[in-house]
Amino acid sequence: MKPSRRLNAALGAAFLVDRCLAAATSGVFNVLSINVAGLPAFLNNNDVPGDKATNAATLGSKFAQYDLDVVHVQEDFNYHAYIYSTDTHPYRTATSGGVPIGSGLNTLSNFPWADFRRIKWDKCSDASQFDCLTPKGFTFMRVAISNSTTTAGSSSSSSSSSISSSSNNSTAVYVDFYNLHADAGTEEQDLVARQDNINQVAAHIAQWSAGNAVVVYGDTNSRYSRAGDTGIRALLAASGNAGGPGMTDAWVELEHGGVVPAAESACGNPAESDTCEVVDKVFYRSSPLVALRATTFRYDGARFLQPDGKNVLSDHNPVFVEFSWAAGAALRQSDFSGGAAYGTWFSDVPTLAAISKPKPQLLRFRGGSRLDGVALTLTDGTQLSHGGTGGTEVSLELGPAEYWVEAELCRGEKDGKTRNFYIRAATSAGRTLAAGTRTTDCTSSAAEDGWQIVGFVGQDGDEIDLLAFVYAPR
């Protein structure tokens, strides 16, 4: 059964959760992508009737009315405030500015996220339009589809998002969301720039989203029927694309039986059917931690019409996709503790997924004033290590029938940034290992019955900035 959206609208970072609460292990969520035509009217009227400010305010009210879980908007420039004035999503990105300062990319969400970053394109082209006028690019966020915060319910809303500091961070499900607006136009320079744009997103997925489920959507300015738009094909999972990010296009999957169409079939506004093609697309992939499956696809123009009932509120058709999800059967993760957006993401999931029944044999932590590093050695000799070399190292060797079953992390601030200061591991034999300096802001993560802690996900540098634990069955 699909949980209430209001139940999923998450608490702020200070909410404390009773230890008996656990995150859901399956469910559904939906996404919407729409280019909101927010360029100033004197630059581009988008051939859409109606006042732009009025259209923007109506869009915001409809985002709230239809209770959409994660909305990605593009070209959200000079009428941004009108959208947010009527929308009620509890988590929303702050605007990066109007033309020519901002990227026009924003997200409105019922779920919190652990990290959010804006990345500018390496290449742009003004051959057809003024794509270099603004710092277009893509955004990255790691969204908590389910954790102790989203499970607990909501008592407040926020214009931003932060990592939960609940007392129990035992289980969580995260999906990496990317919002993009690629270079427009069909001149050769435009095609080259757009190809580079999509390749840049793919490279970011390879580095930052290793081991994670991913949903990429936005205005790709690309069509499969256009020979020069090879970038979107490179995102897809295919036998000849083993080095790509392994994505599925929800439109291709659900409306074309998984076969990429070659013939041109452009949509009107609103779209005449769901089988015609627009440049706004939704890609996704699963991971060992969570399985995703697109169950519904539609062009949602009928719900976003102007008062005349004829025209969509933007010159782009809104794209709606609903997903079902299920937590991994062989690997799962805890929630995060620490601070985000200044470390480098790491994940032991790809390594662990290739090992049958991983089990730690040796735990090693480094700490002093703060938590400097975490490491473990599996029984097959695989070593997993993250963080720096500072502090003092402590270690604990586990017996053949002894498992790491619980962990405690404490965080604090250093130089204005939140970091992990302390870790304590507890085994099934009642032994413990600790490093760093304990604070008053602590969380615990406990493996479910029959499971154990076998690795890590997080952000590091010289220290452990952000940390979650990976679970596997014993």
From TrEMBL:
Gene3D superfamilies in the cross-refs: Endonuclease/exonuclease/phosphatase, Jacalin-like lectin domain
Q: Which UniProt keywords apply?
A: Signal
Which SUPFAM superfamilies does UniProt cross-reference here? DNase I-like (SSF56219), Mannose-binding lectins (SSF51101)
Q: Name one GO molecular function term.
A: phosphatase activity
Q: Sorted alphabetically, which Pfam families does this protein's record hold? A: Exo_endo_phos2 (PF22669), Jacalin (PF01419)
What ranges does the record give for the region Disordered, renumbered to this chain? 149-168
Domain of life assignment: Eukaryota
Name the Gene Ontology biological process terms: phosphatidylinositol dephosphorylation
- Jacalin-type lectin domain: which residues? 343-473
* Cleavable signal peptide: 1-22
Q: Which GO terms describe its cellular component?
A: cytoplasm
Q: What is this protein called?
A: Jacalin-type lectin domain-containing protein
